[in-house]
Amino acid sequence: MATGKLEGKVAIVTGAASGIGQAVALRFAEEGARLVLADLNASDATLSQIVARGGEAMTVAVDTSSKDSCDAMVAAAVERFGRVDTGVFAAGIRQDPVSVLDLDLAALQKMLDINMMGVFHSARALARQLVAQGGGGTIVNLASTAGKIPIPGSGPYCMAKAAVIMLTKVMALELAELGIRVNALAPGFTSTPMWDPEKGSDEDLWAMSMTPMKRTGTPEEQAEACLFLASEASSYTTGQVLYSAGGQFVD
Predict the structure, then answer these.
(1) Would you give per-residue pLDDT tens digits along the chain (251 residues)?
(2) Quick check: is 207 in a domain?
(3) pLDDT score of 195
(4) CA-CA distance, 40 to 143, in Å (whole number)?
(5) Phi, psi (deg, nearest 5) at residue 51
(6) Residue 124, class by beta-carbon neighbours within 10 Å (0-12 exposed, 13-18 middle, 19+ buried)?
(7) How many domains does the chain divide into?
(8) Does residue 3 belong to any structural domain of this protein?
(9) 28: closest CA among 172, 144, 239, 20?
(10) Is 243 an active-site residue?
(11) Which of 56, 68, 212, 218 has a beta carbon 3.0–4.6 Å from 34's, enabling a disulfide?
């Protein structure tokens, strides 16, 4: 139920064309935010849904692995809406399992460029804009339980998400006195186009063996967690990682 938690706010969401990013964008729009829908290939699918429901949004094509592209994303938001108040940085990729011994360095670099540096470039570009506006605002970085739980065959992904967690904590400390809150959401297994194993498959059974609630999460559930971190509902919370993971224990 919409309660206006983000009424009048301007929000950037990367990875907004599908999955968690799309669910976040739609939920934020319901709460009154004006959206900047950023994705590698600017898609009108999310935009159309928001506009059909009476919301306001724009699309931006962004390569989050590029500093210049992320800077341009924030600049486009400011040009259209005059300011930015919050950002959820959900763009990311997944790769097929491979051991560290057999890992192709180009594949490793691609993972780090998008899942680690993409969040870095996006979060830093927004933080600089928030500082220029006089402070205040929120940043939500998408991490993963894989940033805390080592998964054989997923070294690059685990490395990147662990880096996002530490980036979040450092930025939170550096920006706290300016009223800028920085937190991370670390989803567990969530049904998205990027991860959707067949029910009963080995991958599905493995995931359920690690999840006490014995089901995968939904993008909409992760969007609710992002809404909490982006809104005043978490006004005294910064530098934290929210594990929305069906009971997975990470400490």
Answers:
(1) 678 999 999 999 999 999 999 999 999 999 999 999 999 987 789 999 999 999 999 999 999 999 999 999 999 999 999 999 999 999 999 999 999 999 999 999 999 999 999 999 999 999 999 999 999 999 999 999 999 999 999 999 999 999 999 999 999 999 999 999 999 999 998 888 776 666 767 778 888 888 888 989 999 999 999 999 999 999 999 999 999 999 997 67
(2) no
(3) 66
(4) 19
(5) -65, -40
(6) middle
(7) 1
(8) no
(9) 20
(10) no
(11) 56
Q: For the beta carbon of residue 225, count every other beta carbon within 10 angstroms.
A: 20
Q: What is the pLDDT of residue 147?
A: 97
DSSP labels, the chain: ----TTTT-EEEEETTTSHHHHHHHHHHHHTT-EEEEEESS--HHHHHHHHHTT--EEEEE--TT-HHHHHHHHHHHHHHHS---EEEE--------B-GGG--HHHHHHHIIIIIHHHHHHHHHHHHHHHHTTS--EEEEE--GGGTS--TTBHHHHHHHHHHHHHHHHHHHHHGGGT-EEEEEEE-SB-BTTB-PPTTSHHHHHHHHT-TT-S-B-HHHHHHHHHHHHSGGGTT--S-EEEESTT----
- The domain that holds 32 is classified in CATH as 3.40.50.720
Phi/psi of residue 34, nearest 5 degrees = -95, 130
- Which residue do the tokens 């929000």 mark? 11
Name the nearest CA neighbour of 167 among 119, 228, 126, 127. Answer: 119
Q: Which domain holds residue 75?
A: 10-192+218-244
**One of 157, 189, 228, 243 is an active-site residue; which one?**
157
Residue 2 included in any domain:
no
Asked if residues 207 and 216 have their Cβ atoms less than 8 Å apart, the reply is yes
